[in-house]
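The step that takes the researchers longest sounds almost clerical: writing a folded protein down as plain text. The outcome of that step, for a single protein, is printed below.
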Amino acid sequence: MHALPLSLIIGAVAIGVFVIWRFSADIHQSRSRVGRGSTVVTTRCGPIEYQEAGSGVPLLAIHGSGGGFDQGMAFAGPLQHRGIRVIAMSRFGYLRTPMPADASIAAQADAHVCLMDALGIQTAAVLGGSAGAPSALQMAIRHPDRVSALVLLAPLAYRPSTEATSAAPMTAEIEKAVMAIIGSDFLFWLASHLFRKATIKTVLATPPNLLSAATLSERARIDAILRDILPVSARSAGLRSDTLMSKHLKPSDLDTVRVPTLIIAARDDLYGTYASAEYTAGQIRGAKLLGFETGGHTWVGHNEEVMSAIADLVVAPTLAGAAR
């Protein structure tokens, strides 16, 4: 057996030191980022973390898997420039909102109302993205007098088995690999750097080829979404809960939803939300489906149109009321 050349050993050590240094710097930065700008308020449903920006019509932004108040503010924050007060909260098990004994979809919906009560907000528009959609929908069903408008963005939603799917389900092997990656800060960081396209495809459920044709601002937005999943360790309890919840979605009383509703999805969303969005829109009276052929789970190339559609829905009732 021949000994490895000293130059190879030195090179391997140097690479290892650089990787550790770079990861340490990035994880420190991510922890610092989520450690500022938010507030934890005591509610009758327990402590809830939130951040708000802007003024005008209140909108509660409910984040998806791998999120927190920061993700909610990332996708809803631009609405603060359209006469909307954005309130982004961290759901159960994410960042500084603890995981309670009952973390059901119904309990999450009730907790959203608890946050509104603590902030002195009587009614608000509700925006649920991805895995935040089920509790947003339940809020409109359970507390219709507290919701002025409902937006479901790339929603995780129930779809009967008789309805055609819009994407093949994730294989058990890939799901296991993804769960391992999002269960570790280091593994997620490493995957997002070494296997960037694969991470965008599996974790963000977005066809990577869309980014090559996207604008610089859109690419920067997707970069931020991917980067800001760190620290994933501070979101692990919520991620596990969401994963379990996604496997046991049940039908909702969609015909009881009476608020103005907008549902947004892209046909090439690799999580298959388009079929669920179509079904949900068809069951809610007067619901509008804003569908795109491309865009993936992160609606690449359509962010401006998405923001405008949401603002029109949220602000329109207020403008109509002022005109009367």
The chain is about 45% helix and 15% strand. The CA atoms of residues 61 and 76 lie 6 Å apart. The mean pLDDT is 92. The longest strand covers residues 46-53.
